[in-house]
Amino acid sequence: MRIGIDARMYGPKQGGLGRYIEQLISHLEQIDDRNEYVIFLRRENRDAYSPTKPNFKKLIADVPWYGWREQLELPKIIRQTKVDLTHFPHWNVPLFYNDPFVVTIHDLLLLHYPTRESSALGPLSYWFKNLAFRKVLRHAVRKAEHIIAPSEFTKQDIHNALGVPLNQITTTYLAPWEPVSFRGTTQKSDESIGGGTEEFPRINADTTSQGNPSSYLLEMTQVNRPYALYVGVAYPHKNLNRLLDAWQLFQQKYGTNYHLVLVGKRNYFYNKLLSNETMKQCNNVTYTDYLPDSELTKIYSKASLYVFPSLYEGFGLPPLEAMQYNIPVISSNRACLPKILRDAALYFNPEKNEEIVEALYRGFTDNSLREKLICNAKKLLPSYSWEKTAQRTLDVYENSV
To answer: Locate the Glycosyltransferase subfamily 4-like N-terminal domain: which residues (predicted)?
Structure first.
């Protein structure tokens, strides 16, 4: 069988979706010598992927996502390769593509949070975008040979919201990216949790765009001061405004010997967050912009706590990635998160500042709880592996044609 994979969003610069595509292809290469694969990439990420098996080929499909070219040009490019099945790893399946395909629906965020806050567009443009999203999504789930979901929560969500029969949806759990250079080297000690009083560097709206995050990173990793870490985007459902409000209360109640570090690619939403009055008033918050994996591991390895205040997730990969570094995790109790993280996280109501504050305090100071969460995380992590994800995805491919 000849299989095409739309990998235009390949790589960590595209966040969790890019990581998913990257890891899926890497592990399909490891387990499948039988089928042929055509990996469609854009020019900007073509060098990020190099096939390691002769049955994997890459092809340039330099078509931006979410636009008219995606609707008209991408189907032509795919058809020219004469694939038997195409895997679209996101909901943006071209309306004019009606050959056999499977699609991964990671979440229904835009259905559940269709607010203007979630977009940088004007009112008319946003209305049109939302209308187009709904049309494309319904086409994708209606025409797909099969649908892949990253969690049972998302599977049920697709069934309830879009009327897709459950037997048309397969759950393929995701897994954290495993940083080779830090495997087994990140056990926290009491000394790393305790405080120094050194001042963290602050990266604000005026300096980030011109500064080099790596230089700030070097300073940060040399400071023995406990910090809570968040890695990800700043979309409204990630609830970072609430986290900042809670952080200010936390400092007022428990002192300023703690720090909060936010890591994520600078864009409209981070710019908006950086201009937040609370952000301006908090002296113990650092924003680093995007960091490559080699530098991100250093931030993880020094963190005392990972905080995840999201209101909605289809899977919730960042907390699992943090657990690999033996970092205790405190998490929102919403959506799929309690089912994915199980007893390896301390949960809080993400809409109550007081609960976030107390979770932060316990996460920093309760050594018995910290040890329990780290121990439970070590038992949890083997449940998720990219080998399992790739094998279940391959089963979907082979059962769809």
So the answer is: 15-171
